[in-house]
């Protein structure tokens, strides 16, 4: 397990220098032809008001109404979750989540937040936003309360974590030690709809938000080198402690992405691979800034210019030194004639 934990936290110079890559294309427009209804939760909810729902199970304080699925009410020490019963065997997918986090608490007097899951385990209550720690798979955390008083990042804060069962989420540090990437987002107590999209395709994880009532996606997380098995379960959970909020899920829609894969991928048993991330800067090296971006910035124009300038100067210096050495050898050889 120690080796697995080290692998997930290993640093790679390439991505540390380059930073997150830009998103190459728009997220899906929600084409119903690619909607996977067996993995989607939409109104009208079948079994609303009862203890049974086709395709979905729920636990804890979760309550299903005709308008939303409330994971926790605005009450202290509550936790709830909802989980898809059907394992997902898609290699490329995109999840759109319509959610709402709201309550009576004022600034920094509310919590704790909501989590979205694609994991091997399901329906297991625990300390990580109402679900178990040391999970296998992917978690996206929508954290609304800063537990670390020394942090400079702005909350609410969205972050991603991939785990092979060996890593522990540290609440006291808001999960910073195991966070892969993240961003701040003003998503609480909004009077308009709030959405989050999670895209996984060909080893690349992208998270985008639409929380500003602009009807457009805003980039939050973009990570390459992510390996997730097939056969895991989608779910959502939330928890409250001394502070509280309503955590509501209005819909979860999963879309299949039509993506070509290399021929060698056909020989891989995707149900047996281990969740992991490669080419990543170590999460232990995270350094906060007020915007929540802890990685080195991308190679912007001036950085590329400086790199090219340094390379050019290096070539010129080598050329000059080479010319001087060559000239001296020529002069030395003339003395023997």
Automatic annotation (TrEMBL):
Keyword Membrane: yes
GO process terms (BP): endoplasmic reticulum to Golgi vesicle-mediated transport; positive regulation of phagocytosis; retrograde vesicle-mediated transport, Golgi to endoplasmic reticulum
Localization (cell): Endomembrane system; Golgi apparatus membrane
Top-level lineage group: Eukaryota
Protein keywords: Disulfide bond, Glycoprotein, Golgi apparatus, Lectin, Membrane, Metal-binding, Signal, Transmembrane, Transmembrane helix
Primary location recorded for the protein, binned into one broad class: membrane
Record's bilayer topology term: Single-pass type I membrane protein; Single-pass membrane protein
Matching PROSITE patterns: L_LECTIN_LIKE
SUPFAM superfamilies (UniProt xref): Concanavalin A-like lectins/glucanases
Gene Ontology molecular functions: D-mannose binding; heat shock protein binding; metal ion binding
Signal peptide segment: 1-25
Residue spans crossing the bilayer: 304-326
Residue stretches in coiled coil: none
InterPro entries in the cross-refs: ConA-like_dom_sf, Intracellular_Lectin-GPT, Lectin_leg, VIP36_lectin
One cellular-component annotation, GO: COPII-coated ER to Golgi transport vesicle
Record Pfam families: Lectin_leg-like
Residue span, L-type lectin-like domain: 33-257
Cited PANTHER family: VESICULAR INTEGRAL-MEMBRANE PROTEIN VIP36, VESICULAR MANNOSE-BINDING LECTIN
Protein name: Lectin, mannose binding 2
Source organism per UniProt: Taeniopygia guttata (Zebra finch)
Lineage, broadest ranks: Eukaryota, Metazoa, Chordata, Craniata, Vertebrata
């Amino acid at each position: 397990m120690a080796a697995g934990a080290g692998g997930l936290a290993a640093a790679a110079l390439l991505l540390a220098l380059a930073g997150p890559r830009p998103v190459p294309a728009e997220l899906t427009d929600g084409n119903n032809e690619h909607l996977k209804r067996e993995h989607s939760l939409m109104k009208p909810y079948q079994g609303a008001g009862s203890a049974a729902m086709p395709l979905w199970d729920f636990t804890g304080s979760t309550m299903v109404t005709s308008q939303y699925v409330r994971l926790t009410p605005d009450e202290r020490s509550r936790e709830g979750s909802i989980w898809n019963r059907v394992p997902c065997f898609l290699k490329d997918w995109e999840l759109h989540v319509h959610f709402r986090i709201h309550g009576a608490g004022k600034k920094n007097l509310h919590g704790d937040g909501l989590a979205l899951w694609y994991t091997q385990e399901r329906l297991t209550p625990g300390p990580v936003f109402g679900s178990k720690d040391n999970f296998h798979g992917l978690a996206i955390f929508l954290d609304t309360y800063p537990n670390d008083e020394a942090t400079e990042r702005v909350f609410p804060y969205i972050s991603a974590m991939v785990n092979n069962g060996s890593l522990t989420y540290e609440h006291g540090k808001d999960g910073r030690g195991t966070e892969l990437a993240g961003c701040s987002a003003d998503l609480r107590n909004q009077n308009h709809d709030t959405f989050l999209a999670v895209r996984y395709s060909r080893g690349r994880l992208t998270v985008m938000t639409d929380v500003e009532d602009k009807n457009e996606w805003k980039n939050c997380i973009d990570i390459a080198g992510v390996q997730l098995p097939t056969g895991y379960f989608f779910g959502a959970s939330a928890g409250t402690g001394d502070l509280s909020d309503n955590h509501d899920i209005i819909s979860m829609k999963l879309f299949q992405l039509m993506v070509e894969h290399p021929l060698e991928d056909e020989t891989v048993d995707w149900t047996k691979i281990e969740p992991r991330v490669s080419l990543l800067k170590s999460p232990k090296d995270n350094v906060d800034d007020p915007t929540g971006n802890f990685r080195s910035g991308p190679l912007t124009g001036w950085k590329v210019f400086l790199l090219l300038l340094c390379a050019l100067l290096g070539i010129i210096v080598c050329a000059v030194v080479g010319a001087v050495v060559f000239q001296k050898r020529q002069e030395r050889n003339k003395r023997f004639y």
